[in-house]
Design brief:
This protein has 277 residues and is an alpha+beta fold. It contains 7 helices and 13 strands. The strands form 2 sheets. Strands 1, 2, 3, 4, 5, 6, 7, 8, 9, 11 and 13 form an 11-stranded antiparallel β-sheet that branches. It has a two-stranded parallel sheet with strand order 10-12. A hairpin with a 2-residue loop joins strand 3 and strand 4. Helix 6 packs across helix 7. It is globular and about 55 Å long. The termini are far apart.
């Protein structure tokens, strides 16, 4: 019984704590550890330096100490925006727990004229996750994950299979990675269903830092409360979340209800690509 209570508490925390803790520095994620990158230029896997065990060393040396090796250089990897939980080490660990290639390069960046907002759907773990929305003048903190082909295919399975996101190239943007050259395009997963509507406007993730923000920021727990009030007024929030997690059909029904009033998708310069299978 105690184990069940612990599991229930962990499931509720996972839903409410989204998008989890994302380091405000660039890092290599390997062996379950986020190794701070002390330089992000060039090839962080082959020529980079990280902080490990309290001292600076090459990325290759740190990987060797962890009993790991990069499967490849940065050459085959593609830059993919991580603006919700995919920049958080604990989420990468969960999504790639059984994957062969668990060495990631995650570079912090600033994206202009966009904000990170809530999407109009529930995940299988009961939260309301993020998507992108245009926001003139806003500068929002994001990450760029550099994914190998195998990691990209695995991420496709996690992000696209439920029909909540599409993958494509976001062009004509102002994306400034820390320590790397400014980028005008990047790959991204975005919600084709637009963004969650609260008072007829998107709602920003309060946990994601931004400057000159135009949208109201809310914590995930507050957004889940809003969804509960809309879909099952008066219900206990924890019970509402637990039902959403446990019942697939109910989760889809609640997602459809959120989408009825969603702010339509409108990202100029986004070019969808059919996932390679």
């Amino acid at each position: 019984m105690e184990t069940n209570r612990h599991d229930d508490a962990a499931a509720l925390a996972r839903a409410k704590d989204y998008p989890y803790t994302t380091p405000q520095f660039s890092y290599v994620f390997a062996g379950g550890i986020a190794l701070a990158l002390t330089n992000t230029g060039g090839d962080p896997l082959r020529r980079g330096r990280v902080t490990f065990d309290g001292r600076e060393m090459t990325t290759l040396e740190a990987l060797k100490r962890l009993g790991l090796a990069a499967k490849d250089s940065m050459e085959p990897r593609i830059p993919v925006l991580a603006y919700g939980s995919n920049g958080a080490p604990e989420q990468l660990a969960r999504k790639f727990a059984n994957h062969d290639d668990r060495v990631f390069v995650v570079v912090r960046a600033s994206l202009t004229d966009f904000d990170v907002v809530y999407a109009p759907h529930f995940t299988r773990y009961g939260t309301i996750p993020a998507t992108l929305a245009p926001s003139a003048g806003t500068s929002v903190s994001v990450s760029i994950t550099y994914l190998s082909p195998a990691q990209r295919d695995h991420m496709h399975d996690a992000e696209i299979s439920a029909g909540n996101y599409i993958f494509g190239r976001l062009a004509g943007i102002a994306l400034v990675p820390h320590g790397r050259a400014k980028m005008s395009e990047c790959w991204a997963y975005v919600s084709p269903h637009g963004s969650l509507d609260v008072a007829r406007a998107p709602v920003a993730l309060a946990a994601v830092p931004a400057e000159r923000r135009r949208f109201q920021p809310l914590l995930t727990a507050d957004v889940l409360n809003h969804a509960r009030d809309r879909l099952k007024p008066g219900a206990n929030l924890d019970q509402f979340i637990s039902e959403t997690i446990a019942e697939h059909t109910l989760r889809r029904t609640r997602t459809r209800a959120l989408r009825q009033s969603a702010i339509p998708f409108a990202i100029d310069g986004f070019m969808p690509e059919t996932p390679l299978r």
